[in-house]
């Protein structure tokens, strides 16, 4: 009973369409930044190393290298401050969490690209 009530309340704050992306994919996250009375959209691009949670609590972690320093940000998927998530490149991952990428530098960070089969309409 209690979970049904919570789900019905959560349903109002869920986004209607969320893009499809998996762990290992390279994504561009469009974030809304509020600075005083102005707002702008900033793009954070990197590799998705983790996804967890469900419903309004679903989050994903994006990692990128800036000036030879690793930067990770955790984004709530259904947050109004996350305007859009655009998958750029699909990476092949055999694990659910890619925390081992934290120890790697240079080309070792790059994941191999997943092949997608295109079907023709014939």
Helix-strand pattern: HEEEEE
In CATH terms, what is the fold-level topology of the domain at 20-101? Answer: SH3 type barrels
Could you say which overall geometry the principal axes of the C-alpha atoms support? Answer: globular
Parts with pLDDT < 50 across at least 5 consecutive residues: none
Strand content: 35-45%
Could you say which structural class the secondary elements and strand pairing correspond to? mainly beta
Gyration radius over CA: 17 Å
Any overview of this molecule?
The chain has 122 residues and is mainly beta. The chain has a domain at 20-101: SH3 type barrels. Helix content is 7%, strand content 40%. It has one helix and five strands; from the N terminus they run αβββββ. The chain has one helix at residues 2-10, and strands at residues 26-35, 38-52, 59-66, 69-76, 82-89. The chain has a five-stranded antiparallel sheet, with no helix packed on it. Strand 1 and strand 2 form a beta hairpin.
Summarize the structure.
This protein is 7% helix and 40% strand.
Secondary-structure topology with pairs:
Layout: H1 2-10, E1 26-35, E2 38-52, E3 59-66, E4 69-76, E5 82-89
